[in-house]
C-alpha cells in the first residue's frame, strides 16, 4: 500500500465509524480504485494502521486528513465582478461546445442531464448571496458554464468543478487529492444530483457531513425525500432545509425545484 492509498482508505472508512454504521467494504473497494486490493486486504491493512497509530482514526497523524492549506487556485478572479453582459460573455465562451459533449448518451443518463440556464444561475446567485470571499464547488459541473458565470457575476474567491465524464476519469483520478483539497475549501456547494447513482449520493453525503467549511448547499434532489422530524441521520442533524428554489434549466421547458440547505 502506498501512502496515498492508506490516506484514501482511512478517509473512506472514517464516516462509517463516525455514524456507527457497518462498514460497506464493497463500496470502499470500488472507491479505493485499486483492482489488486481485495476486501480482505483492505481489512488487514486497516488493522495494521490501527496497530501503528491506535484504534481511533481521529487520532491518526494529520497526513491522513491533509485536505487543505497546500492548495491555492491557479487563476485569480478579477477584483471586481462583471455586472453587465455576463450572459453574452458566458454564451460566447461556450458557443464552440459540440453537441457530442452535451448530448445524453443511450443507457448513460448520469453522464449528462443538461445544464442550468444563465437566468437560473443569476437567480441562484441572488438566493445564495455569494460574496467575494466565498468558494463555490459544483459537483457534476458538466461543461462548466455555471462555474464561469458564477465567477464572472460574483467575483468569488474560487469556483471549482468536479465531473465524472469517462474521458476525464484518468485525469480526475490522478488529481484526486488536489481536487479533494479544493472541495474542502468550498463554503458554498452546488450539486445537480438529480441522476446521481446511489453510491455517488452516499459519497456526497459523507463529504457534506465531514466538511468543516461548507455552510450552504443547493441540491437538485433531496438527500432523503421521505425525511421525518425524528430522523437521526447525521446529514439531517447537521443540515437544515431552508427553502426550495425554482431555477430555469435547459433540460425542461419549465423551471426545476432545487433545495437550499444551511448549517
TrEMBL record:
Organism name: Phytophthora sojae (strain P6497) (Soybean stem and root rot agent)
Tell me the protein's name.
DOT1 domain-containing protein
Q: Which domain of life is it from?
A: Eukaryota
Q: Which GO terms describe its molecular function?
A: histone H3K79 methyltransferase activity
Which InterPro entries does the record match to this protein? DOT1_dom, SAM-dependent_MTases_sf
Signal peptide annotation:
none
Query: What sequence ranges are listed for the domain DOT1?
Result: 114-173
